[in-house]
Amino acid sequence: MDGLIGWLGGAYPWVKAAHLIFVIFWMAGMFMLPRFLVYHMAAAPGSAEEALWIERERRLLRIIIDPAMAIVWILGLALAFNIGFAGQGWLHAKLAIVFLFSGYHGWLAGLTKKFARGERPLAERTLRIANEVPSLVTIAVVILAVVKPF
Ligand code: HEM
Fold first, then answer.
1. Where is the chain membrane-spanning (predicted)?
2. Pick from 32, 34, 39, 142: most CB atoms within 10 A?
């Protein structure tokens, strides 16, 4: 694994810039999706309004969130192998948070499918709390990546 240290050479800042561009796309989508689900929840199952939310959620996931998340992971891991994992506590913490956040994304994607079938398997209050997750993750991950406190 150490053999990859420095493998990006002069491309490193370009890869980092691309990483941040797709981080913004991914996070923008992740701020929108649980908000869409709050509106979707208020629409009656089977109604014309609900059909619009089903389509909006599907397109947001397929066109923005899923591709952006895949590219963020690929570029982030490319950067991580370039700098190496040893002694980088901030990177380990960041990876743990981003891994859980990817699971949160999967949970939301699963919810959109259940909602589309007319199921409402959670309270609106839970969804409103879930809306805060992307903000908290952004704060934690940016501080870890920029300040590198440990
Ligand atoms: C998906 C997995 C991810 C991996 C493996 C990853 C890994 C990395 C690595 C290794 C760096 C280089 C740090 C440096 O050059 O000092 C970096 C930079 C950065 N990442 Fe990520 N990252 C991921 C996702 C994210 C997410 C979701 C966010 C924001 C919500 C984010 C925000 C940043 C920021 C702000 C920087 C710039 C740090 C700096 O140069 O000061 N990353 N990332």
1. 20-39, 60-83, 89-108, 129-147
2. 34
pLDDT bin (cut points 50, 70, 90) of residue 2 is: confident
83-131 tens-digit pLDDT: 999 999 999 999 999 999 999 999 999 999 999 999 999 999 999 999 9
148 is in an annotated binding site: no
Write down the domain spans for the chain: 2-147
Mutate to test the pocket of ligand 1, among 66, 79, 95, 97 (most ligand atoms within 8 A of CB): 79
Tokens of 120: 């409402």
Rounded distance from Cα 76 to ligand 1 centre (Å) = 6
- Is the pLDDT score of 1 beyond 70? no
Q: pLDDT category, 3, cuts 50, 70, 90?
A: confident
